[in-house]
Amino acid sequence: MLIHAHQLSKSYGSKLALDRVDLTLDGSDSIALVGPNGAGKTTLMSLICGYLQPSSGSLSVLGQAPGSSELLGQLSALPQDAQLDPGFSIGIQLRHFGALQGMSKSEADREARRVLDLVQLADTFSSRPQDLSHGMRKRVTIAQALMGQPKLVLLDEPTAGLDPANARAVRELVNNLRGQCHFLISSHNLEELQKMCSTVLHIEQGRISQTLEVHGGQNDAILTLTLAPQSGKDAGRWLGQLPGVNEVTHKGQQEFLLRYDNNAHPQFDIELLQALHQQQMEYRQLGRGLSLEDRLFSGSSTE
Questions:
Q1: How far, in Å, are 47, 173, 295 from residue 291 at the CA level?
Q2: Domains of the chain and any CATH numbers
Q3: What is the per-residue pLDDT across 169-183, written as a single tens digit (0 to 9) for each?
Q4: What residue stretches are annotated with the ABC transporter domain (predicted)?
Q5: Which of 181, 161, 159, 178 minimizes the C-alpha distance to 169?
Q6: Please, what is the angle between helix 134-145 and helix 164-176, to 10°?
Q7: How far apart are CA 186 and CA 278, in angstroms?
Q8: Which residues are CB-neighbours of 192 under 8 A, at least 6 positions away?
Q9: Is pTM, for the whole model, over 0.85?
Q10: What digits encode the pLDDT tens for the residues 237-265?
């Protein structure tokens, strides 16, 4: 079992940050932790790492108490504001983290090179942090979190402030490591989380308010369509007149939710693409079901 919490609470003086959280996570490759600022995300992750002690309740991580020596090398975490030391090369710093896990010098050297290769920065081993871009430094810190092949890795806002290329590299890394380790990722970027995670925990006012499977709502008779900007002001009206469409919701800009009759039009997605082609209307994206944002916040989820 990855994480098990029973009636877990944490208070800072009179402020209740976590309120009797019950949580069991087992088997999901990547788990997203979302919620507003001050909801309790950082507190929960700090308890999991053993940085804080709970005020009441119980918590186990990989079957062990947080902070236990048995978790050395099994659990790692990357805070959002993690920094590299400008005075030492990337290789020296990663080897140091390997030594802290009990690796020999040669083992730490091999492991440092392995994790740099994972994040596609093998040629930065002898570089200093100031020689790298912000996005590259972020990927190096993720490599640091992967030292020793931990079973559970906690990442806080891993793609925040990254350009699209570096954000994609982080996303591909997480997806490529599925089956090798588990990730718990805290972020406000729901679009990125939808591409990386299989399970989403929504925390609000110190409690887990929703648990969703990212792809769990994709069999609903709903399509999310994003049209090109030049599609025109009457696109919503035109979409509503298509055979099989029951309802069209304009979400803003050129994004629409289409609810349709799946019994009469089981291949409606293909029909829609054909209709768009005939009208010479360009589209940017077409997805089944509701987006993660809609399922969390619109109240439209069928789960």
A1: 30, 23, 6
A2: 3-213 (3.40.50.300), 220-298 (3.30.70.100)
A3: 999 999 999 888 999
A4: 3-230
A5: 159
A6: 20
A7: 43
A8: 159, 167, 171
A9: no
A10: 999 999 999 999 998 888 999 999 999 99
